[in-house]
Every structure is written in structure tokens, then in C-alpha cells.
Known about the structure:
- By secondary structure, the protein is mostly helical.
- The chain is built from 20 helices and no strands.
- The protein is elongated, with a radius of gyration of 33 Å.
- The model is unreliable at 1-6 and 8-17 (pLDDT under 50).
Amino acid sequence: MKKVLFSAALFFAALSVSAQESVVKEAKSAKSDPAKAAQILEPALSDPTTSKDPETWKLAGDLQKAMYDDENMKLYLPGGQADTAKLYSSLAKMFEYYIKADAAEQQQVAAGVLKKPKLRAKLAKTLASVRPNLTNAGTDAFNTGDYAKALTFFGLYVDAAQEPMFNDVEAVKGDTLTSLIANYAALAANSLENKAAVVKYAAVGKDHREEGYRSLMCLAEVYGKSETPDSAAWLATIQEGVQKFPKQEYFIGNLMDYYIQKGQVDEALSQINSILAQNPTPYFMYVKGVLQYEKKDYDGSIATMNEIISKNGDFVAEAYSKIGDCYFFPAQVIVEENANISMDDPKYASNEEKIKELYEKAKPNYEKAKQLKPDNKQLWGQYLLNIYWKLNKAEYEALEKEMGY
């Protein structure tokens, strides 16, 4: 009985192989209609036997290439209208299937079935010629918000540089655009919150001289905002960004915030002074002024902020607001002190005079910030309300009404 069952199993296995080989033959005979032939061939791509045959994958790629060529030709014909969705879908599948054909053939070479590969050179040449169009496909998808497709197309472009089949194709291996496109793959992955893909593509993209900051930003988001933040990797990424892209405010701002939180203001000031020596932008000047403020070097902070104001460029409203802070917050220390002193105590009255004096100095700076950026209430709103409450109730009531309280 066991022998009979074993024979039956062999018989049905033979039938299965025969059926899939028949599918391949049928698909070949229908090649004049590539879409139909591709549909016929579909079962053979997942069958354990035919899917190991490089010719199966080559045929699948050939059918996609035929559909791609047909749509691509329409782009060059007068009045031609190509189905770009079909064009790009066939392009992606062509890459997938030809690469699988090469991998299957290499397995046959390794197993001694073939002495040397027959398909690699031709398939590599074909894919190298159409590879640039993957960037168009990725860009179109990205611009319409289809980040999954954008990641597929950009990813295929970047991954090709690591595929063994392109080892002898300089147009792919030596392509200087690969790191640029990797940045956009990382951006698409970041939009999808696909952390593994961000790390994969950002590792390539971060080395692009102009656009690599995008990848480092995405990496910092992954390391800093995931469910299990990696503070060491985040800091290393931010520091790499500062080193490679010193003009990008994102990295400097985050690093300075880190130093402030850690109480390492002197280290932060040392770094920002070095950066300012090379790149004295208003933003970096503002960062220095904020650090001086955090160190309670109010005179130094005011001097730095006044330098920003004198240049009449960016961050002028912010500079006025920070000068206001240099008077307002020291006043708050006295306010808290007075909360614990009897009103009959002579020091209470003395403190009240100091509070009013500091508020009077803060007031015109916050008002100037309000004038320059009336919609940015964070710069002046609550501070002016506090000051007006102390100095002028009519102004307080007017501002309270203006702010909708």
C-alpha cells in the first residue's frame, strides 16, 4: 500500500510540473498580447518548480518590457497619450522579474547546471537603460502623496546599485545620483513611518553633499521619536548633521536644546561661537543669545540680540522678545520672593519698585515683537498681559479683549 501511495504522489507531482510547464508554453504562445500572456504566466511564478527556472522569470520580465515599451512609445508619438500608471507598473515589475531571473540563473551556475550565466549581461544592459525612468515614476507618486509607490520606485533605483548583476555596469555602479535618490526614498519611508526603510535608505542618502541633510533629519526622527527612542543614535545623527551641514538650522537647534536640557550651556556656547566664526547667520546669532540668556548672562544676551536687530534681517521680532525675557523673567524671581514676604515688610515695597522697573524695560521690547509679528502671540502675548496688569489696567483690558479672552 505504501508503495502504491508513493507512486501516486510521484504521479501527481509530475502532473503538477507538467501543468506549470504547460502554463509557461501557453504564455509564450500568447506573447503578441503581453497583458494576457502575463496573466496566464502568473501561476508559474509561484510554483516551486517553474519559479526556479530563470527562463520563467525572463519571460515574465519580457512581457512587462513589451507593455512598458508600448506605453513609452506613446510618449513620443504626436498626440500620443500614455497610461503612465501602466507604464510605471510594468517598469517596476520588469526590474523585479529580470533581477529574479538573474538570481535564479546564478543559482544554476552555483549548482553546476550551467557553466556560466547567459542572461546577465543582456538583462543588466536593458535595466540600466530604463532605470532613470524610475525617478520619474517615484517623483510622480511622491507629488500625489502615494508614498508607498514612491518608495517602491525610488527604492528600486537605489537598490540596483547593490545588485550583483550590475557589477560590471558603470552607469549603475558609478551613478552619482544614487545617493540623491536615496534621500527621497528615505523621505517617502518617513511619511509611511517605515522605520526600517528610513534607516536603510538614509544610510545611503546622508552622504550626498547637498541633499544628505534630508536623510539625517529622517534618521533623527526615527531615533528620537520611536516607541523606544535611541538617544545615543539620535545624538550621533544630530552631531553628524552639524558637522556635514553646518548651515542647516535643524541640527544646530536640536543640539543646542540637548545641551540646555543637560545643563551643558558652556559647551553649547563654545560650539555656537565656532559655528558663528564660519557662518554668522541671524539664526545662529539668535541661538547664541538664547544660550547667554539660559546662562543668565542677560547683558550678553541683550547685546547679541541688539546686534541681530541692527542688521534688520531675520529673527528681529524674536530678538526683541528675548530682550523682553531678559527683563521679565528676572522680575518673576522677585515676584515669587514677594509672595513669601509680608506686605508690611519694607523689602516688599522695594521689590515692587524693582518689578515695575524691570517690567517697564521689558514692555517696549514685547510691544515691538507684537508689532513685527502680531500673529505670533507666543513671542509677546502672556508677557504683555502680565506687564499691563501690573502697570496699566486699561492696556490690560484692551489686550485681553484683542486676544479673545
